[in-house]
Design a protein that fits this description.
alpha/beta; Rossmann fold; 2 domains
Length: 351
C-alpha cells in the first residue's frame, strides 16, 4: 500500500469511527435542551428526578395509556416521566433511544425491551452508571435490570387457551378440525413469546383429552408476522387471506394491539365475518368496537393503570430504600359480549 493510500485509509477509519459518536453527541445535546425546555414550560417547576420511558409503538393506545398512568404517578412523587422519541424530528429504534437515555444520565429508564444482546449490554451500561432500569411487558431476567413490570405470560397463555376452548364448545365449525392461528412476531424470538404460545397449546391440548366428545380436534399453529411497522403487520395479515389454498383458520389470536386491529380490519375487508373468529388483545377503541359488532369474540386486556403505577413504585422504592421487588405483576381481564356493556358504562363514568 502506498503512503498516499495508507493516509486515505486512516482518514476513512477516523470518519467511520467519529460520525456515530458525533451523531450521538448531537442527540444528547438536543435531549438535554428539550428537557430544559420542559422545565421552563412546567411553570419553572423543579422535579426531584427525571425518568425516561421507551416503547417501540409509543403512539399506540396501549403504550399511551401506560405512559399516562406512569406520568400521573410520577407527578405524585415529584418525578417527571417523558416518553422519549415522540418529540424527535425523526424516528429512532428502541436501542438508539435507550442509548440516548443512558448517555444522558437520566434518573431511571422504563423500557419495553427485547432480549437482544445489544439491549442487555445497554442495561449493563445503565447499571454501571447507577441508572435503574425497569423492563416493561417483556422481561430480560439475565440482565442487570432493577425490576420487571408486566404480566405472567404463562397465565396470559392459559387465558387465551381457555377462550379457545370456550369457542370450540359453543360455536359450530365446518371443517373436520378447528384450526387456530396464533400471530407471533417474526422479528423476535424471546422467552416470553415462547412461554405464552406454549401455555396456549398446553391448555388446549390438556382439555382436548377431556372434551373429545364435545368439540372437534383443535389444531394450533403459529403464524409469523413482520412487526417492523404497522404497514408490515397489515401486509402479513393480508397474506393470510390471499394464500393460494384459501385455507383460512377458524380462529385467529392477536397477541398485541396492532395485530388485533389488523386482523379485525382484514376480516371485515374480506367479508370473512362469521367464518374467521378473532381473539384479541387490549381494549383499544377499535377492539371494543369489534366486540360490540360481534366481529371479535373476546379480548384479553391488561390493567395499564397498574402497569404505569408499578413502574414508578419500583423506582421510588429503589431511591428510598435502596432495593425493590424484582417482579410486579399486573392484572389481566377478559372483555366479551357478556360484559361489554358493563365495561362501556364503567369507561363512560371514568370520562
Amino acid at each position: 500500500m502506498t503512503q498516499k493510500n495508507s493516509k486515505f485509509h486512516s482518514i476513512l477509519i477516523w470518519i467511520i469511527t467519529l460520525v456515530p459518536v458525533f451523531i450521538t453527541g448531537l442527540l444528547i445535546v438536543f435531549f438535554f435542551s428539550y428537557t430544559e425546555k420542559i422545565g421552563r414550560e412546567e411553570d419553572e417547576k423543579i422535579y426531584d428526578r427525571y425518568y425516561a420511558m421507551i416503547a417501540e409503538d409509543s403512539d399506540s393506545d396501549f403504550w399511551q395509556s401506560v405512559y399516562r398512568a406512569a406520568k400521573e404517578a410520577g407527578e405524585a412523587q415529584n418525578a417527571y416521566v417523558e416518553m422519549i422519541g415522540e418529540t424527535l424530528s425523526q424516528s429512532y429504534s428502541t436501542l438508539e433511544l435507550m442509548e440516548i437515555a443512558v448517555n444522558s444520565g437520566v434518573d431511571g429508564i422504563i423500557i419495553a425491551a427485547d432480549e437482544s444482546k445489544e439491549m442487555t449490554d445497554l442495561i449493563e451500561k445503565a447499571y454501571q452508571k447507577n441508572i435503574p432500569v425497569i423492563t416493561l411487558f417483556s422481561d430480560i431476567p439475565n440482565s442487570q435490570r432493577l425490576s420487571y413490570v408486566g404480566v405472567s405470560n404463562y397465565n396470559l397463555g392459559r387465558e387465551y387457551g381457555n377462550l379457545i376452548l370456550q369457542m370450540a364448545n359453543s360455536k359450530s365449525f365446518s371443517g373436520s378440525s378447528i384450526k387456530v392461528s396464533i400471530l407471533v412476531d417474526a422479528n423476535v424470538a424471546d422467552l416470553g413469546q415462547n412461554v405464552l404460545y406454549l401455555a396456549i397449546k398446553e391448555t388446549v391440548e390438556g382439555e382436548n383429552q377431556k372434551k373429545a366428545f364435545n368439540h372437534k380436534p383443535i389444531e394450533i399453529t403459529p403464524f409469523s408476522v413482520d412487526s417492523t411497522n404497522s404497514f408490515s403487520v397489515e401486509e402479513s395479515v393480508r397474506n393470510m387471506f390471499i394464500s393460494k389454498d384459501k385455507n383460512l383458520p377458524d380462529i385467529v389470536v392477536g397477541l398485541n394491539e396492532i395485530d388485533t386491529t389488523s386482523i379485525y380490519q382484514t376480516v371485515v375487508d374480506n367479508n370473512a365475518v362469521g367464518s374467521v373468529n378473532i381473539l384479541g388483545y387490549y381494549n383499544s377503541e377499535s377492539v371494543v368496537q369489534g366486540i360490540e359488532r360481534n366481529v371479535i369474540y373476546a379480548t384479553v386486556s391488561i390493567d395499564t393503570n397498574q402497569m404505569g403505577q408499578f413502574c414508578i413504585d419500583a423506582l421510588s422504592e429503589y431511591y428510598e430504600f435502596g432495593y425493590t421487588s424484582q417482579y410486579f405483576t399486573t392484572d389481566i381481564y377478559v372483555i366479551n359480549q357478556n360484559n361489554i356493556k358493563k365495561y362501556m358504562e364503567g369507561n363512560a363514568d371514568e370520562n
